[in-house]
Structure formats: C-alpha cells, structure tokens
Amino acid sequence: MRAIRAQQYRRDSPPRVCEDRLVPHAPLPTHTDLHHTVAELRLEPTGTPFHSQTSLLCPAIHDGQSVFVKITNDPEELLGTEALDRWAGTGAVQVLARFRNAVVLEHAGQTLRSMLADDTEAATVLCLVADRLHSHHVEHVESFPGLRRWFSALFADTDPELDVVRDIADRLLSAPAQQVLLHGDLHHDNVLYSTRRGWLAIDPKGIVGPREFDYCNLFTNPTPKSALNYFDTRLRVVTDTSGIDTIELLRWITCWSALSAIWHRHDGNVATAALPHAITGLAMERLRTHRAL
Asked: What pLDDT digit, counting tens, does each position of 30-88 carry?
C-alpha cells in the first residue's frame, strides 16, 4: 500500500452517525462567507481559497502576520476550534480572531512527517506536544464530549473476537483518572513546525478523557510499514518520554486500534482496516507476554 493512499483513507475519528443513520454533512461554506469574513476581520488574502472535506480555507495576512482563515459549519470542526481556543497557543496553533463560524489561525509551517525522517525523533516530538497540551489547565472540560462516546462503536460491535477488547475498554473508561482535553487525532501530519514557536498541533477533535489515549494515534501512522516496523521502538519512546506504564499503554493501543478498524469497516474500507487490526494483534501479543490479558 502506498503511503499517500494510507493517509488518504485513514480513519481517526468516528463516522458521523446518529441512531444508526448517517448524519448529513453540514453545508460547505461559500466564497460569499469568505468575502464577509475578510471584510469583517480586515484580512488580506494571499492565495487561492480551497475546500477541505468540511471547510473553506484561505491563506491571508492579519495584522501583518501570515495566517490561515478557516470557515466551517461542521460541528466536529467547531469543537476543534474551541479546543484550540482553550489551549491558547500552548502546544497548538493560536486562534488570532473569530467571526461567526470563521477562525483565523497562525500559520505554522511544514508537517512533522515532511521534516523528520527519523522515527524515534518524530515519536518523541509527538509525545512532547501531547504533554504540552495535556499540561495546560483547561477549565470546564466537561463542556466537551467524553471519550466513551467515541468507543460506542466498539461496544456495539458483535464480533466475539473483540469480547476481550471490549472488556479492556470498559475497564479503562470506567477507571478513575484525570480527565484532560485531548487532541484526539495527534499524528505526524497534524503537528507543524513554527520557526517562531516550535512544534504545534493543528486540527484537534476536542474530546475529553485520560491522557493515555492521545498517544495511540502515532502507533497507526504515518504509513503501514513504519507503524508495523517501529511498534516496539515507539512503545519504548512513549513510555520513557511520557511516564505512562507500558501495560496501560498497550491496553489503550489495543482498544484504540480495534476501534479504528471498526470505523474503517463502517466506511466500507475493508482493506485499510488491516493496519489497525494488525496493531491490535501486536498490542495483545505484548500484553500476553506481560501476562496482562
């Protein structure tokens, strides 16, 4: 599988479902929305606007600074904007201005994936960014959705091979633990390098749960080959850098990767479910070695 294809079809957030029906996507913002935003916030566009799956984006100048304007009507994207606002630039790009459903974000730079080829160095950066995000005190985190909501797809699944995983997930989510504002999608393409402020996260999901969850995404990214070849090395890097217990981390990886595979299958991407399924197997194998299953 080519790396670019793996990236394109990676499923890192839940399918948009409600009562077992697909939720219609919010309408994409228009160039008229951008025009109103530019006028209201006194922006100077510097490039051609473009659409992502959920948003309209445009590079611009704001108060003499290079920025990105992002306009969205998508509820999940708006939650992510709220998360960035709460972090106030600690470990993440800064929100410089807002107008209705538009947000002006500082321009950071190139992705971690494009800048660091050494896997250990990249994993260490992701751990340090996660720690900065989690260490920032955020008031009223209960206003964000809880992690158990994401895992509803795992608990609803009827595959008997996942009975053990569901039991582990239920115990992890029920255990008393400090609840922090999670990024929810922290991987090699969602961390950028700013020459002024270092490594910064972008595109958070805005969800609340134990901090261990935010380290799981790096185990299924950025390519299937690297995820499988460096599994044990990354395990050591994360535990050494974050201080998370190895068995606890393996349990979270097991549950996260099983959930990711389910999301892929729900999307009809059976082939791309193979990687998270394989990572689930590796994590469970290590748990058996530690006699922790």
From this structure: 999 999 999 999 999 999 999 999 999 999 999 999 999 999 999 999 999 999 999 99
185 is an active site residue:
yes
| pTM, to two decimals | 0.90
221 CB-side CA count, 13 A = 26
The single residue of 33, 119, 185, 214 carrying the catalytic annotation is 185
Three-class SS of residue 22? strand
Task: List, in order, residues 6 or more apart from 104 with CB less than 8 Å away.
Answer: 41, 43, 60, 62, 67, 68, 69, 95, 96, 97, 98
Structure tokens at 48: 């051609």
The fourth-level CATH superfamily of domain 22-106 is Phosphorylase Kinase; domain 1 (3.30.200.20)
Q: Quote the CATH superfamily of domain 112-289.
A: Aminoglycoside phosphotransferase (APH), C-terminal lobe (3.90.1200.10)
